[in-house]
Design a protein that fits this description.
27% helix; single chain
Length: 211
């Protein structure tokens, strides 16, 4: 929150053109683009915070090496025959041996966006529902991953609730620094999967910007 008398200065990135939505087929036909794939893993839970605040869903993000929050995944390169092969290769490196068997497939694909600046690239977003046991296995085995402590500083759960003070929980989480379009991907996932109601999302977004 800005101190009294301070100006709210726009970040230079705020003036960059917004990414545009494209279909998977359109994205794959683009020339001169780097393709990156990321996935939101989620699972339902009956757990309650302090025995009274329903958590309902566990959603995973990760703390990156640059101190920003993002989703697991990364760039597809010449080694990869498909987007999903590249994504699963990155998941094995970032999250560990559980991804020798647990795979993201084309049916988990959700959306693609093209960004022109600072360099032309396409981000592909996936969501995959897991059992709570599968999700906990990812958390447990993540410390054995090749990139743990290097590119990946740790996994975090997104708090999908707002506490009585109106800021704790999801609003505070949304106040963090996110890489690229991962914040918009998170909100897109919460909306399209109906993990939260639209009014809950809107209230959390408002509180994160005004509290």
């Amino acid at each position: 929150m800005a101190q009294a008398g301070q100006q709210n200065l726009a970040h230079p990135e705020d003036h960059r053109p917004r990414p545009r939505n494209v279909t998977r087929e359109e994205a794959l036909q683009l020339e001169g683009c780097r393709h990156a794939c990321h996935v939101m893993f989620y699972a339902s839970t009956t757990a309650k915070l302090f025995d009274r605040v329903p958590i309902r869903y566990v959603v995973l993000m990760m703390m990156r090496f640059d101190g920003r929050l993002g989703f697991p995944g990364g760039f597809v390169d010449a080694r990869d025959s498909t987007l999903e092969e590249g994504l699963n290769r990155e998941l094995l490196e970032e999250l560990g041996p559980v991804f020798n068997t647990l795979k993201v497939t084309e049916k988990d694909y959700r959306s693609s966006q093209v960004r022109e600046l600072p360099q032309k690239g396409v981000t592909h977003f996936y969501t995959k529902e897991l059992t709570l046991e599968e999700l906990e296995a990812i958390e447990r085995e993540g410390v054995c991953a090749k990139d743990h402590g290097l590119e990946v500083m740790g996994l975090v759960r997104v708090p999908l609730y707002t506490l009585r003070d109106g800021f704790g929980g999801l609003p505070a989480f949304l106040s963090n620094n996110f890489i690229g379009n991962s914040k918009s991907q998170l909100l897109y996932g919460l909306r399209t999967l109906r993990l939260l109601r639209e009014d809950q999302i809107q209230d959390a977004m408002w509180a994160s910007q005004n509290t």
